[in-house]
Amino acid sequence: MQVLGFGVFLLGVYPGAFVDLNSEQLAALPPRRQLRVVTAGVWHNAVLVLACLVLLWLLPTLLWPFYSSGNGGASVYFVDPVRRLRLA
User: Fold this and answer.
1) Is residue 67, in this structure, part of any structural domain at all?
2) ∠ CA 50-51-53 to the nearest 5 degrees?
3) What DSSP assignment string belongs to the chain?
4) Does 51 fall in a domain?
5) Which residues span the domain enclosing 28?
6) Is 47 exposed, middle or buried (0-12, 13-18, 19+ CB in 10 A)?
């Protein structure tokens, strides 16, 4: 298939992409091959989503060497509003 052009765009905050194909070449293909060409973008999006989900699931394991626990503290200062009013 000859690709005449391609591009990416933003629709609000959602990214998108498109490919401009030679429609004469596409029409010359058998219907099953046409379906494969037309759905290629959807297929690759699904594979990309699955890969990202696996990476997200593995992220704690991958970042484990960089975790640090038990090496710090926190201090919290509470203000008693009733006592503060009496002092004023």
Assistant:
1) no
2) 65
3) --EEEEEEEEETTEEEEEEEE-HHHHHHS-HHHHHHHHTHHHHHHHHHHHHHHHHHHHHHHHHGGG---SS---------HHHHHHH-
4) yes
5) 3-58
6) exposed
Q: What is the pLDDT of residues 9-39, one digit of tens each?
A: 998 888 888 899 999 999 999 999 999 999 9
Over residues 39-82, the pLDDT tens digits come to 998 898 899 999 999 999 999 899 888 877 767 666 777 777 66
pTM of the model: 0.55
Question: Smallest Cα–Cα separation from 7: which of 23, 24, 19?
Answer: 19
Rounded distance, CA 88 to CA 82, Å?
A: 10
